[in-house]
Structures are given as structure tokens and as C-alpha cells.
UniProtKB/TrEMBL annotation:
<feature type="domain" description="PORR">
    <location>
        <begin position="54"/>
        <end position="181"/>
    </location>
</feature>
<dbReference type="Pfam" id="PF11955">
    <property type="entry name" value="PORR"/>
</dbReference>
<protein>
    <recommendedName>
        <fullName>PORR domain-containing protein</fullName>
    </recommendedName>
</protein>
<dbReference type="GO" id="GO:0003723">
    <property type="term" value="F:RNA binding"/>
</dbReference>
<dbReference type="InterPro" id="IPR045040">
    <property type="entry name" value="PORR_fam"/>
</dbReference>
<dbReference type="InterPro" id="IPR021099">
    <property type="entry name" value="PORR_domain"/>
</dbReference>
<feature type="domain" description="PORR">
    <location>
        <begin position="182"/>
        <end position="347"/>
    </location>
</feature>
């Protein structure tokens, strides 16, 4: 019977159905139906990152800061040279180390308020040095850091207290050296906000004792039942950043996650600009006992954290610390860096074409006198 139904002769009679028969023989009857089943959309940290509500103001800040970081990295390299300048040929070989994906000359010429490009009077090659205006701001930043040295020491102490064994890898601290920038020891930054909420808004202690500031981005959709879940999570007791685990033993995943949220919140609060590149959190996972998928956890709390993918890296920002793209509570180091950013945003505006040659002549005369 099978030979009659599926014979060569009958296949020619039903040419339109041949592709169906081929599919059945190739995959089998069960596999054929399986291929056509509806597939559940993949829910992962990556898909949630791509589908999240973007905060365009914070993204814009990250794009601007990217170019400032590149400029500061180039300055660090130039400052290590013996005479305080570097040839463009040397810089072009080093540009990939700082993540610069355009020609070095094109990048430097975009920011004449920061970089001086000139022809060396003796070597006759194009060289670059930092402008006096930028050099003054870098010196101002160094002075602000030194003036805040006691606060920085206190921040380092708090970082050590966050770790499970009181130690941290020096490489991890070196990676966030720019992010570190004055608070009470063993008291998390969020506690100040909780006291303010309790005293000024007359809220019940149960509503504020374990809560976090929540600021959702514009366009965030609140689904049915979300407010109730958020309220329950805000009231959930957890082991705070500097507390002993015995005070509130971790019995479930929610308490563990909230404990880690508290550590991430405190770590970001200890930085100058309330932001840290996401990949640098990995260096603190073990010492801070945060053995979870940090990106996935951060994406679960869009009212507390924001991950910006702009600026060639994924950066975590503390949402409550920013308003309209600026820090709500600025500090001296942040203020200096904003002045540097203003130079980046100025581009070529306000540059007099005669300024460069006059300065070059003065430098040449000074260098000639030094040589003689």
C-alpha cells in the first residue's frame, strides 16, 4: 500500500505536495510538527539590556565623557615623555591602546582647546602637547584630590569594610582610581536619604528603614501589580552594606539580591561621578561576596541603576545622583572635570588662528635658549 501511495508515479501526480513529503522524510513526522511550534522569546540579561527604556540624558553624558577620557589618556601618555610632548607618529602607534578608532591627527585637531599641534623646530616633525588651559585644569584637579586626601582615605577604608575579609586587590583599586574621589565611616550613603525621608516626609519607619531612592526613566511603563511588588521589596529586611550577616540572616534569593543591591549602591556612592564601568564590577565580585550575574541584577532595578551602552563601554550610573544630565550634589573634583568637558564640547570654537604660531615662536625661542 505504501508503494502505491508514495510511488514515483504518484509523486509526479502531486508535485505541489512533494516538498511536504520531503520534509516528512527528512525530519520525521514528529520533527516536522516540532519545527512549526511557537518558540518562547528568550529572556536574558542581553535581551533585557536591549529592550530597556533608555535615558537619553545620561546616554548623552556618557558619549561626551568618552572623548574626555580619551583626551585624559592621551595626556597621561604625553606627560610621561621627557620633554612633555610627543610626536604624532608615536601617538598613532599608541592610539589603539586607549581605544581610539580614528586617526590620531583628526582626533587632536577636533579639540584645539586641549591639544597644541605644531611642527618641531629642530626635528621638523608634527608634535603635540597639552594647551596651558588644559594643563591648568589638570593641576587644579590634582590640587582638589590632594585637598580631599582624608576623604579619599575614608572611602578606601569603607571599601575595605565592604569586603568579606577586609582586603582588596590593588589592581581592582587601580582600575577605579579615577572614579574614587566624604561620609561617616561604616554608615552607607543611602542611610542619609532614609533619615531625611523619615523626618521630613513623616513616613513610617517600616517604609524607610530598608528602602532605596527610586527614579524611573521617562517612558517607563508600570504594569498591574508592579507597585505592590515594589513596596514589598522596599520593606524587605536585608543585611546592609556594613552590617554583620548574623543581624539579618539571608534566607532567600530576594534578601541576597537586596544585600548585593545595597553594596552596589554604596560602591557607586563612593565614586566622584557616581558611575563605574560594568566590567570593573567583576573585580569586586569575590571580595564583596557578590557571586551573581551582576548585569542581570542591575537590569532588574531600573529605578536605582542605569546601564548606558554609549561611549564604547557599558557604564553603570546611580540614577538618584543625576538630574538633567548633571550631578545633583557636585564635588570639587567633579567640578574640575566638568570644566575639562566644556573644553571638549567647545571643539574649535573661540580659537584664534594666530594664537598657534605666536605660541610656537615663543616655545622655539625658549627651547633654543635651553639647548645653547
Amino acid at each position: 500500500m505504501a508503494s502505491v501511495v508514495f510511488g514515483q508515479r504518484n509523486v509526479h501526480v502531486f508535485p505541489l505536495r512533494r516538498h511536504i513529503l520531503d520534509e516528512v522524510f527528512q525530519h520525521g513526522p514528529c520533527n516536522c510538527s516540532t519545527q512549526r511550534r511557537w518558540k518562547k522569546p528568550i529572556d536574558s540579561a542581553r535581551t533585557r539590556l536591549e529592550g530597556r527604556i533608555r535615558d537619553h540624558k545620561l546616554d548623552k553624558v556618557m558619549i561626551q565623557l568618552k572623548n574626555l577620557r580619551l583626551a585624559l589618556d592621551l595626556h597621561e601618555f604625553i606627560s610621561q615623555r621627557r620633554n612633555g610632548y610627543a610626536s604624532l607618529q608615536l601617538l598613532s602607534r599608541w592610539r589603539h591602546e586607549v581605544g581610539l578608532n580614528i586617526e590620531i591627527g583628526a582626533f587632536l585637531k577636533k579639540y584645539p582647546h586641549i591639544f597644541d599641534i605644531y611642527v618641531h623646530p629642530i626635528k621638523n616633525n608634527q608634535c603635540c602637547k597639552v594647551t596651558p588651559k588644559m594643563a591648568d585644569l589638570i593641576a587644579e584637579e590634582d590640587a582638589a584630590i590632594w585637598e580631599n586626601e582624608p576623604a579619599i582615605v575614608k572611602r578606601l577604608k569603607k571599601l575595605l569594610m565592604l569586603s568579606t575579609d577586609g582586603t582588596l586587590n590593588m589592581h581592582a583599586l587601580w582600575l577605579i582610581r579615577r572614579e574614587l574621589g566624604d561620609e561617616n565611616l561604616a554608615v552607607a550613603d543611602v542611610e542619609e536619604w532614609r533619615v531625611k525621608e523619615y523626618t521630613e516626609k513623616w513616613l513610617a519607619e517600616s517604609e524607610t528603614k530598608y528602602s532605596f531612592p527610586i527614579n524611573f526613566p521617562t517612558g517607563f511603563k508600570i504594569e498591574k501589580g508592579f507597585r505592590e511588588k515594589l513596596g514589598n521589596w522596599q520593606r524587605l529586611p536585608y543585611t546592609k552594606a556594613y552590617e554583620n550577616n548574623e543581624l539579618h540572616p539571608i534566607h532567600n534569593v530576594e534578601q541576597l539580591e537586596k544585600h548585593i543591591v545595597g553594596i552596589l549602591h554604596e560602591l557607586l556612592s563612593l565614586t566622584v561621578e557616581k558611575m563605574i564601568p560594568l566590567e570593573r564590577f567583576s573585580h569586586f565580585r569575590r571580595p564583596f561576596d557578590m557571586e551573581v550575574n551582576l548585569r542581570e541584577l542591575i537590569l532588574k532595578h531600573p529605578g536605582i541603576f542605569y546601564i548606558s551602552t554609549k561611549g564604547s563601554t557599558q557604564t553603570v550610573l546611580l540614577r538618584e545622583s543625576y538630574s538633567k544630565g548633571c550631578l545633583v550634589d557636585p564635588n570639587p573634583v567633579y567640578n574640575v572635570r566638568r570644566k575639562m568637558l566644556d573644553l571638549i564640547l567647545s571643539g574649535c570654537h573661540g580659537i584664534d588662528e594666530t594664537d598657534g604660531p605666536i605660541q610656537l615662536v615663543e616655545e622655539h625661542n625658549q627651547e633654543s635658549s635651553n639647548v645653547s
